[in-house]
């Protein structure tokens, strides 16, 4: 199962997204749930860098297919200055969009007693 841990601060802003595991939906290399999760992870990291100017070399760690078909990612909004005033707001929109993507993916595949994605939210 893929576990997605969403960390929020006391104002409910997303400060980190942590993803780990293998869904077990299908054989490694054919698993569309893992492919969807990987796409969301890379979209999040690349968007934070390109749209918000966050140096993802220092706030992101992504390891995919570590020999066991698992994805592992840590994406954190660093407590640093953004390149412009609106970057922090854009970062939140991006984070919330990807959180919505994970929730949508989970609700579409976690059916009939099967759990492929587990979403945990922390404050």
Structure write-up:
By secondary structure, the chain is α+β, with helices and mostly antiparallel strands. The protein has one domain: Alpha-Beta Plaits (2-Layer Sandwich). It is built from 3 helices and 5 strands, in the order ββααββαβ. The protein has helices at 32-52, 56-59, 87-109; strands at 2-8, 14-21, 60-64, 71-76, 117-122. The chain has a 5-stranded mixed sheet. The radius of gyration is 15 Å and the shape is globular. The two termini are 23 Å apart. The mean pLDDT is 88.
Task: Describe the structure concisely for a colleague.
This protein has 123 residues and is of the alpha+beta class.
Can you tag this structure with a few keywords?
123 residues; alpha+beta; Alpha-Beta Plaits; 5-stranded mixed beta sheet; 39% helix; globular
**Which ranges are low-confidence, i.e. pLDDT below 50, for 5 or more consecutive residues?**
none
CATH class: Alpha Beta
Order of helices and strands: EEHHEEHE
Percent helix, as a range, is 25-40%
In one word, what is the shape?
globular
What's the CATH H-level homologous superfamily? Cysteine protease Prp
**How does CATH name the architecture?**
2-Layer Sandwich
Mean of pLDDT: 88
- At the fold tier of CATH, the topology name is Alpha-Beta Plaits
The major sheet is characterized as: 5 strands, mixed
The domain tally reads: 1
Work out the helix count. Answer: 3
Distance between the termini: 23 Å
Residues in β-strands, percent:
25-35%
Tally of extended strands? 5
The chain-level structural class is: alpha+beta
What is the alpha-carbon Rg in Å? 15 Å
Strand arrangement across the biggest beta sheet:
3-4-2-1-5
């Amino acid at each position: 199962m893929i576990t997605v841990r969403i960390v929020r601060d006391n104002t409910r802003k997303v400060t980190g997204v942590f993803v780990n595991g293998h869904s077990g939906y299908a054989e490694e290399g054919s698993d569309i749930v893992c492919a969807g999760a990987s796409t969301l992870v890379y979209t999040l990291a690349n968007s934070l860098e390109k749209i918000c100017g966050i140096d993802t070399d220092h706030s992101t760690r992504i390891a995919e297919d570590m020999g066991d078909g698992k994805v592992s990612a840590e994406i954190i909004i660093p407590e640093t200055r953004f390149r412009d005033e609106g970057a922090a707001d854009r970062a939140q929109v991006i984070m919330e969009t990807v959180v919505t993507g994970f929730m949508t993916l989970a609700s579409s595949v976690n059916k009939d007693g099967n759990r492929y994605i587990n979403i945990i939210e922390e404050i």
